[in-house]
Amino acid sequence: MNNFVFHNPVEVYFGQGEIKHLARLVKQYGKKVLLVYGKSAIKRMGLYDEVLSILSSNDIAVVELGGIDPNPRIESIREGGQLCKDHQIDLVLAVGGGSVIDAAKGIASAALYDGDPWDFYSYKTSSDGALPIGAILTLAATGSEMNRGSVVTNFTTREKHGWGSPYTYPKFSILDPTYTFTVNKHQTGCGIVDTLTHVYELYFSTDKNHLNDRLCEAIMKTVVHYGPLAIANPSDYEARSNLMFSSTLALNGLTGFGKTWDGFNHTTEHVISAFYDIAHADGLAVLGPHWMRYVLKEDNVQKFKEFALNVWNVDNTGSDLDIAQRGIDAVFMFYQSIEMPTTLQEVDIDDRELETIASQATRHGNIGNFVSLSEQDVLTILRNALN
Amino acid sequence: MNNFVFHNPVEVYFGQGEIKHLARLVKQYGKKVLLVYGKSAIKRMGLYDEVLSILSSNDIAVVELGGIDPNPRIESIREGGQLCKDHQIDLVLAVGGGSVIDAAKGIASAALYDGDPWDFYSYKTSSDGALPIGAILTLAATGSEMNRGSVVTNFTTREKHGWGSPYTYPKFSILDPTYTFTVNKHQTGCGIVDTLTHVYELYFSTDKNHLNDRLCEAIMKTVVHYGPLAIANPSDYEARSNLMFSSTLALNGLTGFGKTWDGFNHTTEHVISAFYDIAHADGLAVLGPHWMRYVLKEDNVQKFKEFALNVWNVDNTGSDLDIAQRGIDAVFMFYQSIEMPTTLQEVDIDDRELETIASQATRHGNIGNFVSLSEQDVLTILRNALN
Prior knowledge:
The structure is a homodimer. By secondary structure, chain A is an alpha/beta fold. Chain A folds into 2 domains: 11-180, Rossmann fold (3-Layer(aba) Sandwich), CATH 3.40.50.1970; 185-384, Dehydroquinate synthase-like - alpha domain (Dehydroquinate synthase-like, alpha domain). Helices cover 47% and strands 12% of the residues of chain A. The first copy, chain A, has a 6-stranded parallel sheet with strand order 1-8-5-4-2-3, sandwiched between helices. A two-stranded antiparallel ribbon of chain A has the order 6-7. In chain A, a hairpin with a 4-residue loop joins β6 (150-154) and β7. The first copy, chain A, is globular. The A-B interface holds A 1-18, 177, 208, 210-211, 214-215, 217-219, 221-222, 225-226, 237-238, 241-242, 245-246, 249, 254, 257-258 and B 1-18, 177, 208, 210-211, 214-215, 217-219, 221-222, 225-226, 237-238, 241-242, 245-246, 249, 254, 257-258.
């Protein structure tokens, strides 16, 4: 087992009705909130009204920044940071999914920075502070509610970068599974794929770590079990709560201790969706199983065999390679069963930009820690994924 | 899934050589440390000298309190609290196993309390603060390094109570698996049993929680896999590190979210070891499998079947009850294989005090949340465990 630091200060309130803690939590940090949210979802479900009512009845002033995009843009970070400065905001409260929480992290950091916040995401400067951040989660997917990461897109430069600082952990996150009852089939599928990808990009590692592998399998098994149940019955509380906390644990440090992140899937997908603005998880669903098929080799067949048997419960007859391939087939079939794409064609991407994407994805050199992949390897995976 | 709060502020530094962070971590809190430790183990392994050398070369003053007992006593808490007051200590640094860390938590709280610290453990008062606590772990067992719990014995009143406050989480814990290379066979076995018991007292629950169950199984599988390897080769780093972090995760909140603690095993064992001063885990090893045999019923057979198949990998033929019983047999055989006792006779306890123990264990009413047990049930389990 490799050395690691394990520390996560986020306070999570999980379960139906936990919004009852909101006013107390906010008031620990002040009386003026920037409310950050996305499109109309939280208004449709009544959560917007509920949050405003709780805040106003507790004499907490609210400035609003709605309309955060699914791939949040640097323009929103700039705007939010300026609002914080103009209105002397005490806490940035994100109400939404991972994109909204990611945006809140950038905004809270921009609020205490004199330059352009793209400096953080382009790694030109580090941050030395942020306003306190709170989150109310409405989508089980990114894990942003319990980590410091923030992914923001700059469509001017066609770049999508992940970043975070010691100050961008939310102080608190409220996770009420009933808020995800209205999430539609495709978005639920996206959350399932995002969670699984977060886990398997750490599970598939050359770092030996039995405990971590078993914990990763525990989360993946839960997602594979409950994903289809949540899609079949969107108000299944048990399914929604298992998916929600699985997505949180998938990227809060638990699946990563002592492990090196593989990174192929996320790195390549960020390039794809900076070009095409497709849903992040659609890109991940296309890439994941094709990546597995490409990197499966003699020397890592044991790991794929464990994955096949322990997560997908496949038939254990035949050679190790047979079993390993059966596991990868199961990923393809699972994604198809929840109506997620497994080819680029399904997300309207043809072969025109593939060379540029492969080149961008490997602009700093080979990618992938489990199996190191060159520009040519990435291009081959993309071509294999065409249709 | 039941509602829960998930929050653990402890900063864990895991792996060989992580003591390099010690001076920096201590200096965040001050320049004067109460060094709390047990008997001679940390001196024999050279850790005592190393810690003193790091502290003195960083101008950190040290007051010492050695000799903490394996079942730490309230007298040590009183003495340590007084030392903190007399010497204006800034941080209580525990170097040792769970007992030493438990003592440090009591001492750090006593340091800021005017009354007798037994008031905490007898639930007469709550604590409103504690000195900062740091820990350097030398035994993989109790999980105290990443939780707020502290168990202390009062031999005058023959009581052993667990207690904790929001202030008794260590600020940091250094977990170096090489510090456990010198732990002998019996103490390694005790750690294994303690960890498994922490997990199965939460695993066996009537609360439905798929994700939590799978995570519990992940930890138990790891302990069952590596326990015998660590006993066979005490310097097996991979085995020691997996056991160490398993014991930490077993009682840091991860295995408990949304679950009600069963409590039979720990409650009854605390009474036994307040009477007999046997090793805590010897008592747990005796009680655990006998408890399972007694509580296994038609209506919980599915849970025992999952335990048997997913943790112990038993043959899955026959009736559900057959499979469930095979799992419990596997626990007996596993404990015997690592030379842990599974009868009271082996720890020199006869039937003389069993009625008193059963009565004490149930003094507040039935115990056990998975299956509620009366005084008579407890007595029957104890008698079944005699030999």
